[in-house]
Fold this protein.
Amino acid sequence: MKLLKGISKGIDKVNDVLGNLFSVLVLGILAIILCEVILRRVFNSPQIWTQDLIVMLFASYTILICAYGFQKKAFVAVDVVFAMMPKVAQYALHLVTYLCFLVPFVFWILPKSFNFFLRAYTTNEQTYSVWAAPTWPVKLCFFIGLFLLAVQTVSEMLKQLVCLIEEVQGKKALPDGGKEDQK
């Protein structure tokens, strides 16, 4: 049990650090949008590169921060019926839904995303705009983000498994993988 908790905490720590690091991309996006607005509105000099760069940075940000969002439970969930279930059923349902939906999707698309990046890199693929920026950095971010999501999925499944086992054994399990003795 300690091994499973240790693996989960290690993965969470890495995704915590990377999530905080990747969140800085928002400041870059904001700076470029601000630059474009000032150049367009104040100096009447719009740039051809800003739109592509904003889209590429935002796409990179969205996929890179995905694992962090999953870890922090930032995704929308409808818990009306789920909250009325006993804890054992909740942990089991999380495991089943992760295994049925998330794991097949992530582990199916992960190798495809690497091939997607590799093809863009080896062929020097560029955007269709006049700026003709290389597309491989965004596609690399797609692969890295999906890899981090796959690893975070393993962590979340380990947490649910530990909580399920502890609940069945009679110990009060907490969603973060910690435990508390029943009173």
Strands lie at 172-173, 179-180. The first strand starts at residue 172 and ends at 173.
